[in-house]
Each structure stands twice: as C-alpha cells, then as structure tokens.
Amino acid sequence: MRVVILTQGVLVAKAFTAGARAFGHDVPAVIVARPVTDSEGLIEAAGQADVLFPATKRSLAPLLAS
C-alpha cells in the first residue's frame, strides 16, 4: 500500500515514515501543510520520499486528490 504523510513536524515525518515502512508500506511523498522553519530537517526525515511544499491552502486539495 502507498502512504503519503501529511505533517508540519520533523519528528512526525521521521516517525510516521519509518513506521509505515516498517509495516511494509511504500511512502512516496511527505506533504508539508504550512511553511516551516526546518525544511531541511523535513527533507532529511523523509528519506527517499519526495517532499512537497504546497504554495497555498488551495493547492493542497489537488495533491490529496491524486
């Protein structure tokens, strides 16, 4: 199963990505809901997953629909 993580926090991204992968899920992306101060930390926490930073709240819905 493919799982996309939606978060604002580095620790959540790291824990949920690792947890999902431990259960055998593929994590293709981490979506960051708001601008954050530690974008590099989120990119590192995502590992192999793509990290998406939607420009506005309106651009978030199409990402979730696909």
Description:
- By secondary structure, the protein is α/β, with parallel strands linked by helices.
- The chain has one domain.
- Helix content is 41%, strand content 24%.
- A 3-stranded parallel beta sheet has the order 1-2-3, covered by helices on one side.
- Helix 1 runs parallel beside helix 2.
- The longest helix is centred in the first third of the chain and has 13 residues.
- The two termini are 15 Å apart.
- The model has no long low-confidence stretch (mean pLDDT 89).
Summary keywords:
66 residues; alpha/beta; 3 strands; 41% helix
Write the topology of this structure.
Elements: E1 2-7, H1 10-22, E2 26-32, H2 39-46, E3 50-52, H3 60-65
Parallel strand pairs: 1-2, 2-3
Helix pairs in contact: 1-2
> Oligomeric state of the chains?
single chain
Poorly predicted sequence stretches spanning 5 or more consecutive residues: none
Radius of gyration computed on alpha carbons: 11 Å
Helix content: 40-55%
Distance between the termini: 15 Å
Give the amount of beta strand, in percent.
Answer: 15-25%
Largest sheet: 3 strands, parallel
**What is the molecular shape?**
globular
- Helix/strand-derived category reads alpha/beta
Along the chain, the helix and strand elements come as EHEHEH
Mean pLDDT: 89
Q: State the strand order across the main sheet.
A: 1-2-3
Query: How many separate helices?
Result: 3
Number of domain modules: 1
Number of strands: 3
